[in-house]
Amino acid sequence: MIMKCTMASISAVTNKTIKDALEFSATREIADACFQEALAVAKAMGYDFGRDYLNQAPGYLAKVGVHRDSMCTDIDNKVPTEIDYLGAKIVTYARQKGIATPFYVTMTNMVKAIEDNYL
Are 119 and 80 in contact (CB under 8 A)? Predict the structure, then answer.
């Protein structure tokens, strides 16, 4: 879910494939920061993804990421996205634990702003 939560909003906002988003330095920087924020929240909630997760996740996504996330299709079709169940949940859990997640807040709010244009 951390990989999905991170890459869905980036793909949706940029209309890039997951692979392209990871290879483009500007969106890779956002993804890396989102991964770190999500892991901090998970840790605060008692989950441990291990020391190597930040190296493994992008490698896994690079292999399977030659597609746009389903959230892009939602936006293309002008239907509600699943942002409330993905990035927004990370933000909610972070706030409950007193953890700052500025990248997740930004990406979540960007998706919500795009949705607001058509809903």
Answer: yes
CB distance 69 to 12 below 8 Å: yes
Q: Is the pTM of this model over 0.85?
A: yes
Residue type present at position 82: E
Q: What is 2-118's CATH number, 1.10.1040.10, 2.170.150.70, 1.10.472.80, 3.30.1120.10?
A: 1.10.1040.10
- Model confidence over 12-48: pLDDT tens digits? 999 999 999 999 999 999 999 999 999 999 999 999 8
CA distance 47 to 99: 15
Q: How many helices (H) and strands (E) does the chain have?
A: 7, 0
